[in-house]
UniProtKB/TrEMBL annotation:
UniProt xrefs under InterPro entries: NPHP3-like_N, P-loop_NTPase
Protein name according to UniProt: Nephrocystin 3-like N-terminal domain-containing protein
Keywords linked to the UniProt accession: Repeat
Keyword Repeat appears in the UniProt entry: yes
Record flagged with keyword Oxidoreductase: no
Nephrocystin 3-like N-terminal domain sequence ranges: 53-163
The organism of origin for this protein: Pisolithus tinctorius Marx 270
Length: 176
């Protein structure tokens, strides 16, 4: 640090620039508009029981709590509204998370190939440690920016960076 302050070591400045450059995730191909939508959330005061149940599950620290909550039911029962409501709430409270919604209207855009790249970018935007871990993965393998292999995306863009930052992220990571 002393050498940097007195400009004795010009290499430090170059290294710092390269680190900042590596954190730029703009070149990562992701889906636009697949996140939560305020117009699709539950009406205020409705579905409070299920919403409370889900929020309690998110905050539950018991190691025996399942890591996945599967919301299921018949068409038109409000699953999407609940999902949008939870995603918007979690975003509002500052949680580390992401929401990826599919729509029949967007089938031609092949969003399924961009799902985990999009989620990874969302998580990086919410947590600096995850952002650095993701940038490291992309620096190691640039093909991750455009691959349509969702299994590879899941492993390299979500699981491995989350594993590297485990213990640094405050609270649970929620993906809707």
């Amino acid at each position: 640090m002393e050498q940097y302050r007195h400009r004795k070591d010009r290499g430090v400045r170059v290294d710092a620039f390269c680190v900042l450059e590596d954190l730029d995730l703009d070149s990562l191909v992701r889906a636009r508009g697949a996140g939560p939508n305020w117009t699709k959330k539950c009406l205020d005061g409705t579905r409070t029981e299920i919403l409370t149940e889900i929020i309690d599950w998110i905050y539950d620290t018991d190691e025996n709590v399942p890591h996945i909550l599967w919301l299921h039911g018949q068409a038109g029962k409000g699953k999407s509204a609940i999902a949008h409501t939870i995603a918007l709430w979690f975003e509002n409270v500052g949680g580390v998370g992401s929401c990826f919604c599919f729509s029949r209207d967007w089938q031609a855009e092949h969003l399924e190939g961009k799902i985990f790249r999009t989620i990874a970018c969302d998580l990086a935007g919410r947590d600096p440690a995850f952002q650095r871990a993701l940038a490291g993965a992309l620096a190691t393998d640039g093909s991750l920016k455009t691959t349509s292999d969702v299994a590879l995306q899941w492993q390299k863009l979500i699981l491995e960076p989350l594993y590297k930052v485990s213990g640094h992220v405050v609270g649970n990571v929620v993906i809707v």
